[in-house]
Each structure stands twice: as structure tokens, then as C-alpha cells.
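Protein modeling request. Please complete all fields; requests missing the sequence field cannot be processed.
Requester role: graduate student
Desired output: 3D structure, C-alpha cell encoding
Chains: 1
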Amino acid sequence: MVVVKVGGSILEEVPSELVSDIKNVLSDHQLVLVHGGGKEVTEIASKLGKEQKFVFSPTGFRSRYTDKETMEIFTMVMTGRINKKLVSALQKQKIPVVGLSGLDGFLMQAQRKKRLVIVDERGRKRVIDGGYTGKVSQINVSLLQLLLENGYVPLVSPVAVSEEFEPLNVDADRTAAGIAGALRADRLVLLTDVEGLKLDGKLVPRLSVSEVEKSLPKIGGGMITKVYAAQEALSQGVGEVVICSGVRKNPISSGLKHEGGTVISHE
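Delivered output (267 residues):
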């Protein structure tokens, strides 16, 4: 079992190499896909006249501040545009994909963040309303297993349902980690638009969990969420996590073979 998160940065035009490689990987593995798409959400929101606000946590985690109007745009773009664009591309290659969000069949329930601690422009900590942002708390494993056992490939967009039955914006990397953990996946592959994790300007081919912990202060904001996701996946029993480029030839297959990218494992 392999869970793959496809970064939104590589989905403006769905790469043909990615689609063909998904088909290749399916011959040997059950596969669950999770996609991002924050950049496209920002672009569509701008066209609709809705300025997007981003905030930073004290640990350097950058996230979209999601008010009610932004949540509506986020849901529309993630579930109605990006998810279906990728579904269409996969179906052209006869891949039996089922596109869904965490709202469908209570696939993903999340706890709404009532408050957010952020660091403002002056470097001061502030507490603000949490908006429509959440953290996945429960995954409907039975639904995913039902699809997998019948030969389908679930393609999940990062929108979860709250305890109040409202949609919530959840981080796609950590969503993928949660799904991988819930399914006891062998591996989690995080596809992005860079080679992998770099420290001091050099690609790091392999890291253990303990080495990751020591390296956290050196990891940049764009990669830190993927590293947190890797830690969470490994803590839930996933065998290893690979962070690698999604725009190279055979991106998933090469990642699984450790041909490039960064492998994070227990040892």
C-alpha cells in the first residue's frame, strides 16, 4: 500500500509522466492519492476579488487564514476544479479513479481550530480566531478500503468536515500522512516541485527520525510541513516517507526505488 500526495505546484498542467507512472505503480501496489492546490486557490480568489491572507505560527509554519468566504472558494477550487481535472487526466489512461473530499461519506472528520497563535509582522505572538481551519481527527478507513478492495484509486482533496458539519481547510501533506497511518501504508510519497529536502544547500538522500528532529531549525518554511507530515506518518506505523520531485520521469516509481529525493525512516 502506497499513499502519494501530489503537490499543487505541479498540477497547473497535469504532467503526463505522472499519470503514466501512476498506472505503472498500480500494477504492483494499491494506491491512494491526495492532492494540494493552494496556489490555484489563491489565483482564483484573486480573480474573484477576495484577497488571501497568510499567517505564520511560532514554529514557522505558514498557512492560509481561512474565513467563511475563503472556505467557500477553497472548497470550490479543491473539490470542483483541481480534483476533477486530475480525475479526468487519470481516466483518459483508463485508471479507475474516484475523486472525493473529506466531506464525502464522512471520509475525514476534523477538529476546528478555535484559536490560532500567530507571529505578526513585528515578530510578536498574537492569538486570533481560528476561522475554518482544522486538524484531521478521524478517517473513514472502511470507505477507503471498500474502494481499494474493488480496484479503485481514491483521489482525496484536503477538505474535511467539522463537528458542526461544516467544511474545513486541512493541510494536504498532513492529511496524506494521516491517511497513510490509518491504512498502515508501507510508504508515503510526497511529490513536490523540488528534488527533496536540502540542508545547507545540499540534497539530503536519507534521514532517520532522530536526525530529522535535530535538523528542524535548519529546515525552510516551504519544506517544514512535509517534514512534520513525515514525522506524523512514521509515528503512526508507516514504513518510510519519500520526499521527491513530481516533475521528473517516473516520479513515484523512482521515489519508491530511492532514485533521488529524500527518504525519511525510523532508522
